[in-house]
Amino acid sequence: MESNRESGAIVIAADGFSGNESLPRGFDWRGFDAYLFDIDGTLLNSRDAVHYEAFLIAMQELYGRAVDLTGVPVHGSTDPIILLKALEMAGVCEADGRATLAEAMRRMCTEVEARSEQLRPELCGSVEKLLAELKAGGKLMGVTSGNVERIGWAKLKAAGIDEYFSFGSFSDRNETRTEIFRWGAEEARRRLGATAKVCFVGDTPADVESAKACGFAVIAVATGIFPLLDLAKCEPDMCIPGCETLWSYAR
Ligand SMILES: [Mg+2]
Fold it and tell me: 157: closest CA among 133, 123, 126?
């Protein structure tokens, strides 16, 4: 398996098939009404430290102490959970952290927006092609992200893809990823009708688990920090190295 992965040939589809990526199998990725995308590691990777530094600045200003994110899980997490965990590790109890959580998130947003020209989002391969194709096909597109809303939109805008998305579900309204995903799917169905078919796209085991917990399909892309085989173990409906592979699965 490892040698296949290194050769870039491995693709895993819904039926567990792996190998020749030219063979379409099983999962009809075009057959949904709405597509809900995670941001970091899925649509883009930030090649800057603006969001990270906003955490540090907000915590320094609000809690009067230098706090860093060393040892705090960030991939697949959400901004409020990251903040609370970092504060806990710095000796701030959860009650005190929660008392100023909304203010800390606002401070982070102000920081990121003030430095928006320093944002360096790198789009993941074929993301623009995919978004354009889905848009041309009349699909509804949204983002479901652990980012605070204003920060999420700032990244999408800097990447030039914000206008593809009709709505977003972020960590201001809901704290956990599963709640964020559930709200996003419900919003898609509010807009399209109760039977609309929804598919999530994400890059972490947490994305796969949240989509499955909500009862919806999920495509896992290995464009973040998680290798393809780690994602495959979570059994997403489709597991691919990146969006560019999707067209190998044309119906
Ligand atoms: Mg992600």
Answer: 123
Q: State in Å: Cα 130 to ligand 1 middle.
A: 17
C-alpha–C-alpha distance, residues 200 and 37, integer Å: 6
127-147 residue pLDDT tens: 999 999 999 999 999 999 999
Answer with the one of 68, 97, 118 that is the final residue of a domain. 118
Neighbours of ion ligand 1 (CB under 5 A): 38, 40-41, 203
Distance 232 CA to ligand 1 centre (A): 16
Tally of CB atoms within 10 A around 43: 28
pLDDT for 250 equals: 54
204 and 113, same domain (yes or no): no
CA of 76 to the centre of ligand 1 (A): 5
State the distance from the centre of ligand 1 to the C-alpha of 75, rounded, in angstroms: 6
* Residue at which a domain ends, from 118, 138, 169: 118
Structure tokens at 50: 């603006």
How many angstroms does the Cα of residue 42 sit away from the middle of ligand 1? 6
In a 13 Å sphere around the CA of 207, the CA atoms on its Cβ side amount to: 36
CA of 138 to the centre of ligand 1 (A): 25
pLDDT digits over 65-122, tens only?
888 898 999 999 999 999 999 999 888 899 999 999 999 999 999 999 999 999 999 9
pTM of the model: 0.90
Looking at the 3D structure of the chain, how many domains does it have? 2
Q: 9 lies in which domain range?
A: 2-47+121-249
